[in-house]
Amino acid sequence: MVPPLANLRVLDFSRILAGPFATMQLADLGATVTKVERPGTGDDTRTWKPPHDDRGQATYFQAVNRNKSTIVLDLSDPADRARAREMAVTADVVVENFRPGLMADFGLDYDQLQPENPGLIYCSITGFGRGPGAGLPGYDLLIQALGGLMSVTGAPDAEPQKVGVALVDVLAGLFATTGIFAALHHRTATGEGQRLDIDLLSCLLAGLVNQASAYTSAGVVPTRMGNQHPSIAPYELLTCADGELVLAVGNDRQFSSLCEVLGEPELATSQRFSTNTSRVRNRVELRADLERLLAARTAAEWTDQLAEARVPAGVVNDIAAAFALAEKLGLQPTVEVPRADGSTVSLCRSPLNLSVTPPVYRSAPPDLPTTTSER
């Protein structure tokens, strides 16, 4: 089996998360990805620990850098810049997330590379674009705050909350991957490369989906609602005899089945709760009625009964339990990736289940070269 991107050469100047996440998607599908790192320290996330593995390598770095090789280059050094340019003019894809203007100073921006490499696909990832916000630093937490995500995350009477993972960077990495694939398709048809600009703020605004359209289409400014949903009920965390149960009831049939399992089917035909719109309007009364009934049993007991009735429900797993669930369901959530010394590191498997050209796991995240000869 030949991976779908086996002949693709990617030069990756990006650091931290969004860019490396995008280039790892390409690497998993067979692309040859060369990561360019700074002398001495390398990618910032090499030092973002704990946690670390049994070899002391930061697990943050490991998350997004498998299937890559690395080269140490000091872009302030003319000889190293020349080496970087030599690699860039023969690459299919260049990915970078420096502050706007810096790659131009190095002679490595799209405008200077394109004449020598007209088929080049050049992806720049910034915080706020290349316009008036070009000088602003872009970190995930900052974008979550400025981009409105924190305003809709958390309890109504508590402080705004960030999401528990760098979601904006992940979104940006996925949007970057999608854009690169589109540009590759265009190049296949025309031979023409292009520049792709991805900014974190725009990625977050697009990722707000229904919360964004509430504002753009209806003038509604969403607010924090805890675990409740602005447009669906019951779609939240509810208290049972021993803890919490998640209910994600998306339609009237599921609500009717829920009421049957809870032993009070007449709730589903009540004028207060017969439609989703009425349930949203009367969500406070609905929650009180449901928690009264749920108090009779444990969350685990309700989960089993509701699953039989095809009602979306479950307990709140920690990450260990989440991986255990995926394993139980046959999803094979982890993969053992080989290191150069013959050992392996366990990493999260790609979710891409391609029937003919599945992802490959050739090599663990690389160690940082330490000598000139390794460069």
What this model shows, in words?
35% of the residues lie in helices and 14% in strands. It is of the alpha/beta class. The strands form three sheets. It has a six-stranded parallel β-sheet with strand order 3-2-1-4-5-6, with helices on both faces. Strands 7-8-9 form a three-stranded antiparallel β-sheet, with helices on one face. Helix 2 (59-63) links the parallel strand 2 (32-37) and strand 3. Helix 1 (18-28) packs across helix 7 (167-190) and helix 7 (167-190) packs across helix 8. The longest helix is centred in the middle third of the chain and has 24 residues, at 167-190. The protein is elongated and about 75 Å long. The model has no long low-confidence stretch (mean pLDDT 96).
Attribute tags:
375 residues, alpha/beta, 6-stranded parallel β-sheet, 3-stranded antiparallel β-sheet, 14 helices, elongated
